[in-house]
Amino acid sequence: MNNYNYTVILFVFFGFTKLLTGQEILTVEEAVQIALENNYQIKIAANELQIDEVSVSVGNAGMLPQVALGLTDNNSIQNLSQTRSDGTKVERDNARNNSLNYGIALDWTLFDGLKMFADYEQLKETQKLGEAQLKQVILNKVGEVMITYFDLVQQKQQLTALDSTIIISEQRVDLAYNRFTIGKASKLEVLNAQVDLNTDKTLMQRQKELYVNTKVQLNEYLARDLKIDFEVVPEIFVDQALQLTELETLVGKENPSLQAEQINKKISELELKQTRALRYPTIFASTGYNFGRTESSLGFTTNSNSRGWNYGFGASLNVFDGFNQNRNEKIAKIQIENSEVAIAQRTQELMSLLNTTYQTYLTNISLIELEGKNEAIAQENMEITVEKYKIGIIPTIEFRTAQLNYINAKVRHSNAKFQAKLSEIILKQLAGNLVL
């Protein structure tokens, strides 16, 4: 069957289902898209990444000069008394004094042991770390959405199975009652059939409760109205082509948590460069243009004005700081070693989880086929049992056993497909390529 025909069939099926139920058919692709647009944690992680992106600038790394405008206006009113060197005595009440200074100043660090370049590289690595963290959040949330979605599919299948077994139990009650009325069965058989029917209905109510609650949980992950009702697709399809060697390669390249550890190691190396830069002198330059005016009611100079440039250079060098420089460099080197250990530890954890999950994946794949055969056998056995029960050649307990075997086989088959899909999702999460 080509892709066009398959798409047409799906479209017709979903349209017919929606016509019957009157509810939205939510596909897993649509659920993931809604989560990517609405999920709160994804939004927060995306905003954190924007902060990191904005922070990457040469100015934030200290490479650009600092320019500032300044204004100072001092005023005073005083009662003054002066005796000058020639013996002249001057007194004045409410003497006013004013000093006004304003101008522009520039300060620029020309050399700091290349620390500013290490700062700039650290800002870029921090942005990469934010990208890895955002990818991890997206993988986690998409995984949660997909697992919850396919859990709903499984629960829907179990509801269908329970619905079919209730129909069978109702038929059994009718048959038992008809046999009782014509004297071919005791009332005990009717009561047992009714008890089993009520038990099935109880299970159905519990399953419906779980189904509704899981819908609420999925709406929560999608960050939308919790009361929105919808239907899910009827079947789970599992990717059975995953290969362990390919997954191991992808984990080493694409896993965001491992990428974060590798970025942290680069940041630790840059922190060592920043620490070593303190061994070198810091050279800076400054310049500015100032205006000044002074007015005084009393004194040899009653009015003064000035304006002009000022400039200069300076340097500083840490000669001795109580051996803190050596100590800080040793600490920075140890932090690099810890980063290497963290990478090795995380790699081993991921590979261990990948291998165990892959083995579970293979087991679940084989169980899908096995449980499918069991379901077919249980269905055939159920059909034969119903016919035999109708003509009264098998006891009630044998009928109930066949009925329970049938419902349990359907549930196990559905659960096997869900567990295989769960393993598939986890494997793709670990490989960092959880795509639809």
What report would you give on this structure?
- The chain is of the alpha+beta class.
- The protein has 2 domains: 27-56 and 112-281 and 320-431, Outer membrane efflux proteins (OEP) (Up-down Bundle); 66-111 and 283-316, Outer membrane efflux proteins (OEP) (Single Sheet).
- Helix content is 65%, strand content 17%.
- It has 9 helices and 6 strands; from the N terminus they run αβααββααβααββαα.
- It has helices spanning 3-21, 28-38, 40-55, 115-181, 187-221, 244-254, 256-277, 324-390, 396-431, and strands at residues 24-25, 66-83, 89-111, 230-231, 282-296, 303-316.
- The chain has a 4-stranded antiparallel beta sheet with strand order 2-3-5-6, with no helix packed on it. The protein has a two-stranded parallel ribbon with strand order 1-4.
- Helix 4 (115-181) packs antiparallel against helix 9 and helix 8 runs antiparallel to helix 9.
- The longest helix is centred in the middle third of the chain and has 67 residues, at 115-181.
- The chain is elongated, with a radius of gyration of 40 Å.
